[in-house]
Amino acid sequence: MSKTSYHFLRVGLAITFVWIGVLIFKQPEAWGGYLQPWAAGLLPVPMAQAMIGTAVLDIAIGAFLLVDFLPWLAALIGAVHLVIVLTVSGITDITVRDIGLLAAALALAIESLPQSMIAKIALGKKLSPETYRQGQSPEIK
Asked: Taking the mean position of all CA atoms in its chain, how far away is CA 87?
């Protein structure tokens, strides 16, 4: 992925998460109506409080993505959040868009993973700090 594409994807997702968080803050009860009855019954707090928590999470994810701070972690948390949203809301004419956002969040998480983590995953072993201090890049096949 080019650097320009990465930034478009990151900023686009950031704006989307912040925007939806603000909308949920404005009308938490209305957004709670999208939950399936079985999911609403599992909430340990009132629906409005759960939705305000969701709004805070959405805004935090968006803020982290916007300032490019730990984007891999923000995108990964965003992807998990979207899976939960799709699970508890079901796939409807409204939530079907979340499938695209989920794919974008996963792509961003993978693209922004630190190289040291990619190397560990690819090689399946712990790499020594000397490898990185000497400017060597472990060979990934």
From this structure: 15
Q: Would you say the pTM of this structure is higher than 0.90? A: no
28 part of a folded domain: yes
Does residue 63 form part of some domain?
Answer: yes
| Residue 118 belongs to a domain | no
In one letter, which amino acid is 104?
A
Packed helices 96-111 and 71-89: angle between N→C axes, nearest 10 degrees: 160
Domain range holding 43? 3-113
- Within its chain, how far is the Cα of 68 from the centroid? 13
Q: List, in sequence order, the alpha helices (H) in the chain.
A: 3-26, 28-32, 37-40, 47-66, 71-89, 96-111, 115-123, 129-133
Can you spell out the DSSP letters for 24-41? HHH-HHHHHTTS-HHHHT
**For residue range 13-54, what is the model confidence (pLDDT) as tens digits?**
999 999 999 999 999 999 998 889 999 999 999 999 999 999
Q: How many structural domains does the chain have?
A: 1
Residue with token string 């079907």: 96
Query: Is 72 inside any structural domain?
Result: yes
